[in-house]
TrEMBL record:
Residues 12-351 form the FAD-binding domain. NCBIfam families: pbenz_hydroxyl, PRK08243.1. GO terms for molecular function: 4-hydroxybenzoate 3-monooxygenase activity; FAD binding. SUPFAM superfamilies: FAD-linked reductases, C-terminal domain, FAD/NAD(P)-binding domain. This is 4-hydroxybenzoate 3-monooxygenase. One of its GO terms (biological process) is benzoate catabolic process. Gene3D superfamilies: D-Amino Acid Oxidase, subunit A, domain 2, FAD/NAD(P)-binding domain. Keywords: FAD, Flavoprotein, Oxidoreductase, Plasmid. InterPro entries: FAD-bd, FAD/NAD-bd_sf, HB_mOase, RIFMO-like. Its EC number is 1.14.13.2. The keyword Flavoprotein applies.
Length: 398
């Protein structure tokens, strides 16, 4: 330990801020490629693993986890889904990804992805700092960036070549970029999703996205015995005001009769409300600081794109860093922001569209409702429209 008042200093190639899926996946891809890195996280591992997030993986994400050497449990426990169902007007309509585009998605919780990445990182013995306080970024406009933090009362400094800001929407990385250098694009929706997790079998084999006059609902799952359900609620709602019974009643109301009948209810093991937001920060690179995942962009969860976009950013960044260190070629790093943003904006568009299609907007008039109904009717009646949904949902090519 450094003597009182002094700073404990170390150096590495890449300092990664945040141990969410973006930071941990990047760390693993770099470690596999032999590139020194450190992960600096402000919370404890237990806190990070306590967050319940989405659970749909695109093939690109599954491939990234394979490259990182963490696809073992995912292959065993992940549920491969060949389609989704849309429920409206009392009926369900299946969108068959497999038949339409020959592709699928894997249901495997983000919490489990994070757990697997944490275990692999621990096994490889690379440095990870949890419960780092007052993390701050310095000199990323120079060729000697630094990250400072305090741990157990001792000040630390990491001198590095590059900083990867993987610290989520509320992190310090994006906030460290001077205002005039960044441009923000944002839409906040006037509702959130109230979600519960329950130890009950899922109501159907595939996910059901329901549009109802009382609002949107989603039936998802984590396994064959554990379900994840959501209902759209006004942004002003509090989870405490929602007993389990009230939640199940509301969900049942919003489903088609067959699903409502089949729904198995039980005590919730988690209940929370997530706001819905679309957000992009441009560019995604500032000198030697790269933003990745939720630090750079947020999508409403309707298209299940948040984690997948984070994985896609991280793949571009890992490849750029590997080309730089192994072949002295910085072209991919120079293209990082542009490449990510092209994909990010397409996922933003899709997530915004799915959200607009399926939710009730408080300010929508009768005309807007009819347009929404017509769009749903068109969608399920048109193979071209179904294919468009399918190719976006399973993930556009990189
Ligand atoms: N210093 C260090 N770590 C920080 C700081 C900070 N100042 N601020 C936040 N963090 C940590 C958070 O505690 C969190 O563990 O950064 C991590 C960011 O993780 P996520 O929020 O999960 O973001 P990301 O890794 O980009 O994951 C992508 O996919 O399904 C979506 O939104 C969902 O989290 C998900 C995202
Ligand atoms: C989830 O399982 O939590 C989930 C699934 C699909 C979504 C959003 C969330 O679109």
């Amino acid at each position: 330990m450094a003597p009182n008042g002094s700073i404990n200093s170390r150096s590495t190639r890449v300092a990664i801020i945040g141990a969410g899926p973006a930071g941990l996946l990047l760390g693993q891809l770099l470690t596999v490629a032999g590139i020194d890195n450190i992960v600096i996280e402000q919370r404890s591992p237990e806190y990070v693993l306590g967050r319940i997030r989405a659970g749909i993986l695109e093939c690109v994400t599954v491939e990234a986890l394979k490259r990182a050497g963490v696809d073992g449990r995912l292959r065993e426990e992940g549920l491969v889904h060949h389609g989704i169902e849309l429920s409206f007007g009392g009926e369900r309509h299946r969108i068959d990804f497999h038949a339409l585009i020959g592709s699928d998605v894997t249901v495997y919780g983000q919490t489990e992805v994070t757990r697997d990445l944490m275990a692999a990182r621990q096994a490889s013995g690379v440095p990870t700092v949890y419960e780092a306080e007052d993390v701050s970024l310095h000199d990323f406009d120079s060729n000697r960036p630094r990250v400072c933090y305090r741990k157990d009362g001792v000040e630390h400094e990491v001198v590095c070549d590059y900083i990867a800001g993987c610290d989520g929407f509320h992190g310090v990385s994006r906030a460290s970029v001077p205002e005039p250098s960044k441009r923000i694009f944002e839409r906040v929706y006037p509702f959130g999703w109230l979600g519960i997790l329950s130890e009950t079998p899922p109501v159907a084999d595939e996910l059901i996205y329901a549009s109802h006059e009382r609002g949107f609902a989603l039936c998802s799952m984590r396994s064959k015995t554990r379900s994840r359900y959501y209902v759209q609620v006004p942004s002003t709602e509090k989870p405490e005001d929602w007993s389990d019974a009230r939640f199940w009643d509301e969900l049942r109301h919003r489903l088609d009769p067959a699903a409502a009948e089949a729904l198995v209810t039980g005590p919730s093991i988690e209940k929370s409300i997530a706001p819905l937001r679309s957000f992009v920060c441009e560019p995604m690179r500032y000198g030697r600081l790269f933003l990745a995942g939720d630090a750079a962009h947020i999508v409403p969860p309707t298209g299940a794109k948040g984690l997948n976009l984070a994985a896609s950013d991280v793949l571009y960044l890992a490849d750029g860093l590997i080309a730089h260190y192994q072949h002295d070629d910085s072209h991919e790093l120079d293209m990082y922001s542009e490449r990510c943003l092209r994909r990010v904006w397409k996922a933003e568009r899709f997530s915004w569209w799915m959200t607009s299609l399926l939710h009730r907007f408080p300010d929508a008039d009768a005309f807007a409702h009819r347009i929404q109904q017509a769009e749903l009717d068109y969608l399920v009646g048109s193979e071209a429209a179904c294919r468009s949904l399918a190719e976006n949902y399973v993930g556009l090519p990189r």
